Give the backbone structure.
Amino acid sequence: MAGESESGVAAGGQEGRVVELDVRPDLRRGDEPFAKIMSTVAGLGPSDQLVLYATFDPVPLRLLLRTRGYEAEAEQLGPEDWRVVFRPGPGRSGRRAR
């Protein structure tokens, strides 16, 4: 489930929302969360950030979203517990996610 939290500052100093999405329950059930993630990304504004919680470091997703102008920072919180923050990169300002 996606949720919004406090505003954050994106590249270029623009403020945007911080949208959190926890797909760990989906992954633990064996469900594929890709559509849910991409739907959330599609709803992001040009200055919004996505904080994704997963059971692994989603390197292919990080690479895909890099092609859409996002920078990612992954942090392992536990054995099957990752937080990945996707922020708009410098070239992303003013563009919407697709």
In short: The helical segments are 24-29, 34-42, 59-66. Confidence is low (pLDDT under 50) at residues 5-11.
